[in-house]
Write a structure and sequence with these properties.
alpha/beta, 15 strands, TIM Barrel, 381 residues, Enolase-like, domain 1, globular, binds magnesium ion, nine-stranded mixed beta sheet, four-stranded antiparallel beta sheet
């Protein structure tokens, strides 16, 4: 049994020189919320909560944890992390509905879930990829450089290539002529075996997407991500899928098993991208990823916070298999490595997990201390 005896909340915020540009706005600082969960025996595990946008959302989640989620979770005992996630989701259901904040609650529960899986695997002395069902040490995982801003993207791709990346995802949905010119130049410069993806961040309406999606159709793209809003009618998604041979991708803004099942089964998305710090943790995202792969889709985890959650994504991708590729934040991210040590360098565009127990990494709280906004200790008694 695992009794949730103590939980420490850490909120870090690191300003960055060059804001991340998306079709929905700028992100000028890296916010990371980490949880350290300890059980009745003093064993511990780490989890991370999605908190990149909006910046004030990180503070909201810290307060939700401190005032509602953890007072409910502390002192409870569970046979395994999945049981904890299901029960805590049930216990928080009315709070999530009443507050009209299902997303922040889901993210808090996802962070607890990852920490409990890490704790359980550490306690059993096995790496998480094994706890999640894989038998042998994973091969190096192909990874892509994510988050690339449109301005200066060609130069940024060259810099990422020099750092070992072999696949690149660039933001679009600003102005179509400029986007097309940008993407064509990058595509023309790709080396052998290199891959390119686009992310519109839900930035087009259906009329714009009808024009934009086929306009990129002659380029060798791995996928076009979130061309329209995730809650646009399914007929719109079906229409866009018919307009291009390039697979459509999405999942970072889908919440809930039912919504994922519908997205996988509809067939309009060739690439399914749940974010395990936003909804579900391992307990929710493992079945989603397995269902996606069984249905012939590619499971490619969404992740853009610290290196801790990146490791969690890599463990899940390794356990599930298929033709997925790991999202690897390539922009300025001062907290990426310090919150997950030892942080591996990419080799030939690939990310290598270890056979150390659990996530296999530990935050270096001293190194990250300059960006610490708050540390809150909560205990069962
Ligand atoms: Mg995206």
């Amino acid at each position: 049994m695992i009794e949730i005896a103590r939980v420490d909340i850490y909120h870090f915020c690191a300003p960055i020189k060059e804001p991340i540009l998306t079709s929905f706005g700028k992100i000028a600082a890296r916010n990371n919320v980490l949880l350290r969960v300890e059980d009745q025996d003093g064993a511990h595990g780490w989890g991370e909560i999605w908190s990149s946008f909006p910046p004030c959302g990180a503070e909201n989640k810290v307060r939700l944890l401190q005032s509602i989620v953890l007072p409910t979770a502390l002192g409870r005992s569970y046979r395994n992390p999945a049981e904890a996630w299901r029960d805590l989701t049930r216990l928080m259901r009315r709070h999530a509905l009443q507050s009209a904040e299902p997303g922040p609650f889901a993210a808090c529960l996802a962070g607890i879930d990852v920490a409990l899986w890490d704790l359980a695997a550490r306690k059993a002395g096995v790496p998480l990829w094994r706890a999640l069902g894989r038998e042998s040490l994973p091969e190096p995982l192909p990874a892509y450089a994510s988050n690339l801003n449109p301005a200066g993207a060609l130069e940024m791709v060259a810099r990422c290539r020099a750092r070992g990346y072999r696949a690149f995802k660039v933001k679009v949905a600003f102005d179509l002529a400029g986007d097309l010119e940008n993407i064509r130049r990058i595509a023309a410069g790709l080396g052998e075996g290199e891959r390119l993806m686009l992310d519109a961040n839900q930035g087009w309406d259906i009329a714009e997407a009808r024009e934009a999606v086929p306009a990129f159709g002659d380029l060798p793209l791995d996928w076009i991500e979130e061309p329209i809003c995730v809650d646009d009618p399914i007929e719109y998604w079906a229409e866009l899928a018919r307009l291009t041979a390039v697979p459509l991708a999405g999942g970072e803004n889908i919440l809930g098993q039912g919504a994922f099942n519908a997205a996988i089964d509809s067939g309009h998305l060739g690439v399914i991208q749940p974010d395990l710090g936003k909804w579900g943790g391992f307990s929710g995202c493992l079945p989603v990823a397995r269902r996606a792969v069984a249905a012939g889709r590619r499971y490619c985890p969404h992740w853009l916070n610290s290196g801790l959650g990146l490791h969690a994504s890599a463990h899940l991708l390794s356990a599930v298999g298929g033709a997925g590729i790991l999202e690897h934040d390539a922009l300025e991210n001062p907290l990426q490595a310090p919150l997950a040590e030892p942080f591996p360098a990419l080799v030939d565009g690939c990310f290598q997990l270890s056979d150390r127990p659990g996530l296999g990494v530990e935050p270096n709280l001293e190194a990250a201390g300059q960006w610490l906004q708050c540390h809150i200790e909560t205990t069962a008694r």
